[in-house]
Design brief:
5-stranded mixed β-sheet; globular; DUF4031; DUF4031 domain-containing protein
């Protein structure tokens, strides 16, 4: 399933969502390509999605959910990749 959380993450003068899959990175990349997202938007286990593209992602089939639920599904699927500090 492709998932998207609400645009609530500030950066570069706008708000961002996270677009992720609980099935595979292949599914996620295919969805991102279909939306026209740049590869540079991939951040290890999700795409950073600008607020202006949130509704397009939902209309294309992404399931809206809270950020904590999105992360929980990534962890359960074994697809969560934490950033190194």
């Amino acid at each position: 399933m492709i998932m998207v959380d609400p645009p609530a993450w500030p950066g570069h003068g706008r708000l961002w969502s996270h677009l992720a899959s609980d099935e595979s990175f292949e599914e996620l990349h295919e969805f991102a390509v279909a939306l026209g997202l740049p590869a540079r938007g991939f951040d290890g286990d999700h795409y950073d999605l600008p607020e202006k593209d949130y509704q397009r992602a939902v209309d294309a089939g992404a399931v809206p959910m809270r950020s904590r639920d999105l992360v929980a599904r990534l962890i359960a699927a074994g697809l969560r990749r934490r950033k190194l500090r």
